[in-house]
Write a structure and sequence with these properties.
Blueprint: H1 2-11, E1 14-18, E2 23-27, E3 35-38, H2 41-61, H3 76-79
Antiparallel strand pairs: 1-2, 2-3
Length: about 80
């Protein structure tokens, strides 16, 4: 379930290239402060997955809500 959730959230990720810094920036709309930046798309995506995992852990550990993504809901109280 968690893997499906992360994969669905990553499908929403957006990326942009910073011409000034020559970095790729990634973010996931609907997930506040889940961002990453790296020199390659692959590295940016990897960092974004890690940021998302940390965001999920933070929210679940504090029983904060996490958004439903493509019908996938993380049952916070059942995980704890």
């Amino acid at each position: 379930m968690l893997t499906d959730y992360i994969q669905a959230a990553m499908q929403r990720a957006t990326y942009r290239l910073s011409q000034d810094e020559h970095l790729i920036y990634g973010e996931i709309p609907g997930f506040e402060r889940v961002t990453a930046h790296a020199e390659t798309m692959e590295a940016c995506r990897s960092e974004l997955v890690e940021a998302l995992e940390e965001w999920i852990f933070f929210h679940i550990s504090r029983q904060l809500p996490v958004p439903v993504v493509d019908g996938i809901e993380l049952p916070v109280k059942e995980i704890l």
